[in-house]
Amino acid sequence: MNMRGRALRSYNHLIMASLAGKLILAGADLVDPNFHQTVTLIIDHTDQGALGLVLNRPTKTTIASAWKQVSSGLCLIEGFVHQGGPCPGPVMLLHTLESCSQVEPCKGLHFTADREHVEWVLEHSDAPARMFVGYAGWGAGQLDAELEHESWVTTIGTPEFVFDDRPDLWMTLMDKVNPSQAAAVRKPRLFEVDPGLN
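^ that's the sequence the OP posted. Answer follows.
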C-alpha cells in the first residue's frame, strides 16, 4: 500500500472511531422532528451502522402501566416509557445491573432487549432503569457523514445523564459542550423578516 493509501486508511479510521457510550446532541440547526434538540446515547457504532436511544423524549405512559399490558408480574420500576427513536423495535432497557446486561455502553450502565433480562429488572429490582420503545438507527457510514456535516455535537455518556429527568437536558448539556449553539437557540430574533418584502 502506498503512502496515499495509508493516509486515506488512517483518515477513514479516525472518521469511523466508535461513538458507543457517547452522547450525541442534535445540533441547533437540526430540524428533523425526530431529533430536534434530542440527547441520544449511542449503544453500538461500527462500520456497519449505529444504534442509539433518545434520552429526552418521555411519553405519557408509565412503565408500570405498559408492563401491566404484557405481564402479570409486579413492576418495581417507576417513571415513564421513553420514545427511543423513530425505528420500531422490542422493549429495551438501560439500567445498572451487570447480571442483566447485553451491552455495557459506558461504565456502570447496561443495555438489554432480552425478554428475560427485561422481566427480571422490572419485576425484581428497584435500581435505576429506563424503558424505551423504538430506537435511533443509522446505516453504514450514515452517522459518520452526519457528524462531518456537524449535525451532532458529541460528549461523554454517564449514567447521571441517562437517568436525568430534567426537561431541559439538551440545553443543560449544550451549555457545557457548545455554549455558542446554546446561545444561538436562546437568543430571540431581533427582527422578523416579512417575506413579502423580498
